[in-house]
Design brief:
Keywords: Membrane, Transmembrane, Transmembrane helix. The protein is 69% helix and 0% strand. The chain has 101 residues and is mostly helical. It has a domain of 40 residues. The longest helix has 47 residues. It starts with a helix and ends with a helix.
């Protein structure tokens, strides 16, 4: 959610930089805006926004993919382990039959 909010800022900054480089240094800078009195912040504005924990953002973004990979890995490991045990038991049974005969 945090990354989605600020995703569009970089292209805008890059385009502004590019425009300033295209303009060159011949043109004077625009005059500064007149200073305006700032209104007193209301209670809603003075309260801090929710702070985003970067760890929370990371785990919300990658947890589903991580658990998918973990599940597939564990399923593969245990299926190969049990297949190995099954084939090993089949091999020992056939070797005992051939030695007894």
């Amino acid at each position: 959610m945090f990354a989605q909010r600020f995703r569009g800022a970089r292209p805008l900054l890059n385009s502004l930089r590019h425009q300033s480089q295209v303009r060159g240094q011949d043109h004077p800078k625009p005059p500064p805006l007149p200073s305006q009195p700032t209104p007193a912040p209301s209670k809603k504005e003075s309260e801090p926004e929710e702070k985003y924990n970067p760890h929370t953002v990371f785990y919300r973004k990658y947890s589903v993919a991580y658990f998918k990979v973990l599940g597939i890995t564990m399923a593969t490991y245990y299926s190969l382990q049990y297949l190995w045990e099954f084939l090993e038991s089949q091999e020992t049974e056939t070797s005992h039959k051939t030695t007894q005969a």
